[in-house]
Amino acid sequence: MNKKKTLKKRTFTLDDLQPIKILDESKLHDSKASEFFKNKNEVAKALLECLIENDTETFMEILDAYLCVNRTQVAQKTNLTRATVTQAFSKKGNPTLKTIAKIVHEAVAIRK
User: Fold this and answer.
1) Which of the 8 DSSP states describes residue 90?
2) How far is it, in rounded angstroms, from Cα 97 to Cα 20?
3) Phi-psi region of 79 (alpha: psi -120 to 50; beta: other; left: phi over 0)
4) How far, in Å, CA of 100 to CA of 75, rounded?
5) pTM surpassing 0.70?
6) Which of 57, 62, 73, 78 could form a disulfide with 102 if both were Cys (CB 3.0 to 4.6 A apart)?
């Protein structure tokens, strides 16, 4: 009976990759998405721009990303359950306008 060949262990790892140098580093800056979504002014500007451009898909993506960072706080402040907020933006979710309005109001409400 013939012996089956087994694969050798891979010797390649991501650590073996050489870093790529970017030619113009002056235009780059460090940014963290979680910091952006904690700033309600920036989120409000992005949502307003989506409404002006009539881009509903991006509007929902921004709102969903905002909720990834602030889901529990939004659920508490809007008196919605966390499950309702999560389900509203799932693939099968079909949130009502009332639910979206509550979440957007909390997302863009800027308190002095």
Assistant:
1) S
2) 46
3) left
4) 12
5) no
6) 78
Q: Choose among 45, 40, 47: nearest CA to 77.
A: 40
Structure token digits, residue 12: 């390649």
**Distance between CA 28 and CA 34 in Å, rounded?**
18
Residues 6+ apart with CB under 8 A from 28: 22
Q: pLDDT confidence of 42, banded at 50, 70, 90?
A: confident
CATH topology of domain 33-108: 434 Repressor (Amino-terminal Domain) (1.10.260)
Distances (CA, A) of 43 to 21, 31, 91, 109: 32, 15, 22, 10
The two three-digit tokens of residue 61, written as one number: 């993506």
Compute the residue count for the chain: 112
pLDDT at 92 over 70: yes
